[in-house]
Design goal:
Blueprint (H helix, E strand, L loop, with lengths): L1 H20 L5 H17 L13 H11 L5 H9 L2 H4 L4 H8 L1 H10 L10 H18 L2 H15 L6 H21 L3 H15 L1 H35 L5 E6 L2 H10 L11 E7 L2 H14 L1 E9 L12 E6 L5 E8 H9 L3 H6 L5 H23 L3 H12 L4 E4 L5 E4 L5 H8 L1 H5 L1 E6 L2 E3 L11 E5 L16 H33 L9 H11 L4 H9 L5 H9 L16 E3 L7 E3 L11 E6 L3 E6 L3 H8 L6 E6 L7 E10 L4 H11 L4 E8 L3 E10 L2 H11 L5 E6 L3
Parallel strand pairs: 2-5, 11-15, 12-14
Antiparallel strand pairs: 1-2, 3-4, 4-5, 6-7, 8-9, 8-10, 13-14, 13-15, 16-18, 16-19, 17-18
Helix pairs in contact: 1-3, 2-4, 3-4, 3-9, 4-7, 4-9, 6-7, 7-8, 7-9, 8-17, 8-18, 9-11, 10-11, 11-12, 12-14, 17-18, 17-21, 18-21, 19-21, 21-23, 21-24
Family: Belongs to the relA/spoT family.
Pfam families: ACT_4, HD_4, RelA_AH_RIS, RelA_SpoT, TGS
GO molecular function, one term: GTP diphosphokinase activity
C-alpha cells in the first residue's frame, strides 16, 4: 500500500511539472518532455530511493527545479534522463536516437565515471569534477542540471548514514556552493549553503537555529518599525520602491561568528533590507534618502552597480546604524538586477522566453569566458587532484577590482599579487613578467594588489617563471600555468642532462655515442616499454634509470647480459647553466673551485655536493656508490652561486652594518641572514652569492679588516 501511495505521489509531481512548464513552453515541447518522462520512468522501473520512493521521483524533482528557471526543453529532457545511462542498461547512443544528440551530450556530461577504476576515493571525486567541468565548458546547462541534481539530493539527505551525510555536505560546501555563487544562482546557492551547513555541523546548526528563533521574537517589533520608517522615507522622496526585510542566513551568521570569534549575542546585524526600484538613478536617490534616515557606517558601502561582481550581480550595499545601535544591511537594486541576482546565468534562458536582453547575454558571455579559463587550467594540470586544487581556489568570489592601463577591470581574489594579475591578462604575459608599475610606481612581482590599483606589467623576452612564484600566487590560473611551464622546462633540461650522462657511460665502455644507430634505440625503447628516446633520457637524469645499464643494453650483442662494468675515468662537466635538471645542495653550498660529487636520487635528478659533505660521506660509508657520479666544474662559468659563511663578532653597535657593507664592497649580494646572540658575542650566518672560491677569499679578506670579528669561516652542513 505504501509503495502504491509513493507511485501516486510521483505521478502527481510529474503532473505538476507539466503544468508548470506549460506556462512558458510550447505545447509540442511539453509533449516531447512527456516522452522523456515515460522513457525515464520505464528505464528506472523497479528502482527505489533510500526513502522508499520510486527512483523516477528524483529526475522529476530535478526537472521541476530547472523548470522554475524557465530552462529550455532540451535541458528539462536531459534532467529527466540524467541518471538513465549511469543506473540502467541504456546507452548514450539510444538516448541520442530517441531525443537527439544535444540531450545525449548533456546526459553524458552529468553522468559519473563509475566504470573507471581509481586508486582512492579522492581520485574518483576529482576525476568526476574534471569530466563534469569539461562538459560544462562545452555547454553550461550541464552544470545547471548537476546543481539541481545536488540540490534535490541535499533536500533528501536525512535518509543517508551520518558519515555519508557529512561527506556529501562537505563536498557541497567546497565545490557546488561556490559554483552556484560563481554563476549567480542566488536561490540555489543559499539553499545548498544552508543544507550543507545543516548536515556538516548538525549540532551547531540546531543551536544557532534555536538562537535565531529566540532573537526573532525579541527584535520583531524593532524590525517592524524600521520597515515602516524606511517605506515612509522613500515615499516622501517620491520613489516607487518595494521594501522587504529578511533574516541573514544561518551559515553567513555562523561564518561571521567563526571568522571574528564572536558569540551569537555579539552578532547584531542578523537582519537585512532589500529595496527594489524602477531604474539605476532611483538606486542612488534611494541610497541618499536612507543615509539621511540612518547614519551609514564608514567603510561599509559597496557599489556593485558601477563595478558588478564576476557573476553579473549588481546592487548597492550599505550598512546603516539603526535604532538602539542595531546595524542594518541594505541592498538597493532595480527589478532587472533582482532577476539576475536570483537566477544568475539561468536568467539568460528566462529572458530568452520573453525576448532579448543585453544584460543576460553579457552575463552568459562572462560565464563562458570563465569556463574557457577553466579549460586552460584543465589542459595545464598534470592530474585531476591538481586541477581540483586550482578549481577550489578560483571558485571563491573575487574581492578586489584592478584596472589595466586601458581601463579594463579585472576581478581577482583578495591577496592576489602582480603575478596573478599578469596571468589573468594572458599566459604569455605571466610567463615573461619581471616587474610592474602600480599607479605609476615601480613594484616587485610579489606585491599584493588592492582594489582600484592601476597595474601595468613590465615584461622581458628572456624572462621565465620562477618556482618561488608558487609560494605567493593565489589564483588557480597562475599556479597551473607556472607548474605547467616548470614541468615542461624541467623535462627539456632533464633530456639534455640524461643525454650527457648516457654519453659518459657509453664512452666508459669505449663506445662513441655517435655510432649508436636508430635501430638500436628503437629496439631498446620497445623492450623498455617507454614512449620515446626523450622520455628514456629524462628518466636517466631523474634517477629512474641507470645510465650504465642503458649504455650496456645499447652496446651489448644480442643475448649478452646487460650488467655494467664501468670504468669511471670520464666525468660530467658542470657549467652552472643546466637549469632545473641540476641542483646545488643547500647542505654544503658547493661553488666553483670546490671538489664536487654528483648524487642521483629517484625523481630528484642530479644534485651537486662538495666531496667532504656529510651526505656524500654517509653514502660512502654504506658503500652505496651506484647513485654517485664523478663531476667536475667547467672552465668558463659565468654566474654566481649561493654559499654559507659565518662571522662571530663582539656585541658592539654598528658591527652588522659594517659587515654587510664590506660584503657589498666585495661585489656580493646577501640572500639570507640569521643572528644568534650570546652575552658578549653574536654569530651571524649569511648566505651570499659568490662566483668561485677566489671570490669567496676576497670577501673574507675584506672582513678581516673589521677588528670586532673574533672568528669567521664557511658554513658546512
Amino acid at each position: 500500500m505504501h509503495a502504491l501511495d509513493n507511485t501516486a505521489a510521483t505521478s502527481s509531481k510529474a503532473g505538476l511539472l507539466f503544468d508548470e512548464v506549460a506556462q512558458y513552453l510550447k505545447p509540442e515541447d511539453v509533449i516531447s518532455l512527456k516522452k522523456a518522462y515515460f522513457f525515464s520512468e520505464k528505464a528506472h522501473t523497479g528502482q527505489f530511493r533510500k526513502s522508499g520512493e520510486p527512483y523516477i521521483s528524483h529526475p522529476v524533482a530535478v526537472a521541476r527545479i530547472l523548470g522554475k528557471m524557465h530552462l529550455d526543453t532540451t535541458t528539462l529532457a536531459a534532467a529527466l534522463l540524467h541518471d538513465v545511462v549511469e543506473d540502467t542498461g541504456i546507452s548514450k547512443e539510444e538516448i541520442s536516437e530517441q531525443f537527439g544528440s544535444s540531450v545525449s551530450e548533456l546526459v553524458d556530461g552529468v553522468s559519473k565515471l563509475d566504470r573507471i577504476k581509481f586508486q582512492t576515493q579522492a581520485d574518483v571525486q576529482a576525476e568526476n569534477f574534471r569530466k563534469m567541468l569539461l562538459a560544462m565548458a562545452q555547454d553550461i546547462r550541464v552544470i545547471l542540471i548537476k546543481l539541481a541534481d545536488r540540490l534535490h539530493n541535499m533536500r533528501t539527505l536525512e535518509v543517508m548514514r551520518p558519515e555519508k551525510q557529512h561527506r556529501i555536505a562537505r563536498e557541497t560546501l567546497e565545490i557546488y556552493v561556490p559554483i552556484a555563487n560563481r554563476l549567480g544562482l542566488e536561490n540555489i546557492y543559499q539553499e545548498l549553503q544552508e543544507l550543507g551547513f545543516r548536515f556538516s555541523y548538525p549540532l551547531r546548526y540546531k543551536v544557532l537555529r534555536k538562537a535565531i528563533l529566540a532573537a526573532r521574537g525579541n527584535r520583531r517589533e524593532i524590525v517592524g518599525k524600521i520597515l515602516e520608517a524606511t517605506k515612509q522615507c522613500l515615499q516622501e522622496a517620491k520613489l516607487d520602491a518595494a521594501v522587504t526585510g529578511r533574516e541573514k542566513h544561518l551559515y553567513s551568521i555562523y561564518k561571521k561568528m567563526v571568522g571574528k570569534s564572536l558569540r551569537f549575542s555579539d552578532v547584531l546585524d542578523i537582519y537585512g533590507f532589500r529595496i527594489i526600484v524602477k531604474d539605476i538613478p532611483s538606486c542612488y536617490v534611494a541610497l541618499g534618502t536612507l543615509h539621511s534616515l540612518y547614519k551609514p557606517i564608514p567603510g561599509k558601502f559597496k557599489d556593485y552597480i558601477a563595478i558588478p561582481k564576476p557573476n553579473g550581480y549588481q546592487s548597492l550595499h550599505s550598512t546603516l546604524l539603526g535604532p538602539y545601535g542595531l546595524p542594518l544591511e541594505i541592498q538597493i537594486r532595480t527589478h532587472e538586477m533582482h532577476h539576475i541576482a536570483e537566477a544568475g546565468v539561468a536568467s539568460h534562458w528566462l529572458y530568452k522566453t520573453q525576448g532579448s536582453d543585453t544584460a543576460t547575454d553579457d552575463l552568459y558571455m562572462k560565464a563562458n569566458q570563465w569556463m574557457k579559463g577553466l579549460l586552460e587550467t584543465l589542459d595545464d594540470s598534470s592530474d585531476s587532484l591538481e586541477f581540483l586544487e586550482h578549481l577550489k581556489v578560483d571558485l571563491f568570489p573575487g574581492d578586489i577590482y584592478v584596472f589595466t592601463p586601458q581601463g579594463k577591470i579585472l576581478t581577482l581574489p583578495r591577496g592576489a599579487t602582480v603575478v596573478d594579475f599578469a596571468y589573468a591578462v594572458h599566459t604569455d604575459i605571466g610567463n615573461s613578467c619581471v616587474a610592474a608599475r602600480i599607479n605609476s610606481e615601480i613594484a616587485p612581482l610579489r606585491t599584493r594588489l588592492r582594489s582600484g590599483d592601476r597595474v601595468e606589467i613590465i615584461t622581458a623576452p628572456v624572462a621565465k617563471p620562477n618556482p618561488a612564484w608558487l609560494s605567493y600566487v593565489v589564483t588557480g590560473r597562475a599556479r597551473s600555468s607556472i607548474r605547467y611551464f616548470l614541468r615542461t622546462i624541467q623535462y627539456s633540461e632533464s633530456v639534455k642532462l640524461g643525454e650527457r650522462l648516457l654519453n659518459q657511460a657509453l664512452r666508459s665502455f669505449g663506445t662513441n655515442p655517435e655510432t649508436i644507430e636508430a635501430a638500436q634505440w628503437e629496439k631498446l625503447i620497445k623492450e623498455s616499454g617507454i614512449k620515446s628516446k626523450e622520455a628514456l633520457l629524462a628518466n636517466i637524469a631523474l634517477g629512474k634509470q641507470l645510465a650504465a645499464v642503458i649504455a650496456k643494453r645499447l652496446t651489448a650483442p644480442a643475448g649478452e647480459s646487460a650488467a655494467p662494468n664501468i670504468d669511471r675515468e670520464t666525468s660530467i662537466t658542470i657549467q652552472g647553466t643546466e637549469g632545473m635538471a641540476v641542483k646545488f645542495a643547500r647542505c654544503c653550498y658547493p661553488i666553483p673551485g670546490d671538489g664536487i660529487v654528483g648524487l642521483i636520487k629517484k625523481d630528484q635528478g642530479l644534485t651537486i655536493h662538495t666531496q667532504d659533505c656529510s651526505s656524500v660521506i654517509k653514502i660512502k660509508d654504506h658503500k652505496n656508490i651506484d647513485n654517485q657520479l664523478d663531476v667536475v666544474w667547467g672552465t668558463a662559468i659565468d654566474r654566481t652561486f649561493p654559499v654559507g659563511i659565518f662571522t662571530t663578532v663582539m656585541n658592539k653597535s654598528g658591527v652588522l652594518a659594517r659587515v654587510t657593507a664590506e660584503i657589498a664592497k666585495a661585489d656580493s649580494n646577501i640572500d639570507d641572514i640569521t643572528l644568534e646572540n650570546d652575552k658578549d658575542y653574536t654569530t651571524m650566518r649569511f648566505v651570499l652569492q659568490a662566483r668561485d672560491r677566489q671570490h669567496l677569499a676576497q670577501i673574507f679578506r675584506r672582513l678581516k679588516h673589521i677588528r670586532e670579528i673574533a672568528k669567521m669561516g664557511r658554513v658546512r652542513n
